[in-house]
Amino acid sequence: MRAAHYDEQGPAAQVLHVDELSEPVPGPGEVRVRVRFSGVNPGDTKKRAGWLGSSMPYPRVIPHSDAAGVVDRVGDGVPAGRVGQRVWVHGAQSYRPFGTAAQYTVVPQHLAVDLPDTVSDELGACLGIPGITAHRAVFGDGPVRGQTVLVHGVLGGVGRMAAQLAAWGGATVVGTVRRAEDLTVAPQAVRHAVALDVVDPVGEIRTHAPEGVDRVVEVAFSDNVDLDAAVVRNGAVIAAYATRAARPDFAFWPMLFDNVTVRLLGSDDFPPEARMQAAAEVARAAAAGAVTADVTVLPLASVAEAHDLVDSGSRTRVLLATDC
Questions:
Q1: Mean pLDDT, the chain, as a whole number?
Q2: What percent of the chain has pLDDT over 90?
Q3: What are φ and ψ of residue 272, in 5° steps?
Q4: Which residues are bridge partners to 115 per DSSP?
Q5: Residue 247 burial by CB count (10 A; 0-12/13-18/19+): exposed, middle or buried?
Q6: Are 290 and 164 in contact (CB under 8 A)?
Q7: In the chain, fewer beta carbons within 10 Å around the N or the C end?
Q8: Does the structure show a pLDDT above 80 at 324?
């Protein structure tokens, strides 16, 4: 099979290669998926680059955790009826050496989720890390129907998905973008869009949520925490999945007096039950048409370009077509 891989960490163009490798064989409890599209996420490029001093966990890595394709072979203990099923894959390269940037990938069967007939393969390849992270950020502390959810970075993969899931769950969504010029491209799920480069973003948010917001989905905790503390209502949750400063500080007492909960989200390490619930509900939202994504599709041979595109902050989800 053709597969992208790296045997050392470093810049994409230097370490990523596409070669013919042996086809994987599913073991007990596993399925093999014929990959159509492999989704590229920031976490994939960070692993390749050695972000935060991380080292190579395996001698060779086939990157990427997300994909969509068709089950073509099963291991012992897996119903034969799964062969031929369209699926979307998540977590393929979490604590495993070989991910989805290949014509075939093997995963434990629960990581290959049935893809509804109404959902395209392209969208299916976008659901994994962003969808499950967004679901945990929005619903990790219970339903949001009737609440106001502030989603930062709604033009990003997780932010866009979080806004859509929150709206699907019955919340009023206030979303932020970095610049005023980006307000016109906020996703439809955002009821009220606010630019963070205005004079008074707190006042803008308070205009739409005068009693404060119930949940915050946070992509830049260290940058936004003071703003968040100023717009939450008592008992709110700030669910953060990223930060710019590695050791952020914040105004402890105001947040304490508002009984704020800070939930930190590490997508590779969600509890199994929570991950399975999130996967099921993300698939249901996608089937209902509540989740969409704008995609850029590149051939497998352009894997280095795909990584660089993600690192440049692409507003579209970057996919690799494994047959190209």
A1: 96
A2: 97
A3: -55, -40
A4: none
A5: exposed
A6: yes
A7: C
A8: no
Tell me the C-alpha distance between 48 and 46, whole Å: 5
Helix or strand or coil: residue 91?
coil
Q: Which domains does the chain have, with CATH numbers?
A: 2-126+293-321 (3.90.180.10), 130-268 (3.40.50.720)
Number of H helices, E strands in the chain: 10, 15
The answer to whether the pTM exceeds 0.85 is yes
Q: Are 91 and 111 in contact (CB under 8 A)?
A: yes
Burial class (CB in 10 A: 0-12, 13-18, 19+), 77: exposed
| Cα–Cα dist 43/158, whole Å | 12
3-class secondary-structure state, position 229: helix
Query: Quick one: residue 249, left, alpha or beta (phi over 0 = left, psi -120 to 50 = alpha)?
Result: beta
Q: Please count the CA atoms within 13 angstroms of the CA of 156 that sit on its side-chain side.
A: 26
Alpha carbon 49 to chain centroid distance?
A: 19
Alpha helices in the chain, H assignment, sequence order: 12-15, 42-49, 121-124, 128-139, 157-168, 201-208, 221-231, 252-257, 272-287, 303-311
Contact 172, 160 (CB under 8 A): no
What one-character-per-residue DSSP string does 231-260 give?
Answer: HEEEEEEEEES--SSSS----HHHHHHTT-
Q: Tokens in use for 91?
A: 């977590």
Name the amino acid, one letter, at 147: Q
Location of structure tokens 């409890």: 29
Q: Is 119 helix (H, G, I), strand (E, B) or coil?
A: coil
Q: Residue 53 CA to chain centroid, in angstroms?
A: 22
CA distance 46 to 89: 20
Cα dist from 146 to 76, 149, 194, 279, whole Å: 46, 10, 20, 23
Q: What's the mean pLDDT in 146-162?
A: 97
> What are 152's two structure tokens?
């930062």
Cα-trace Rg, the chain: 20
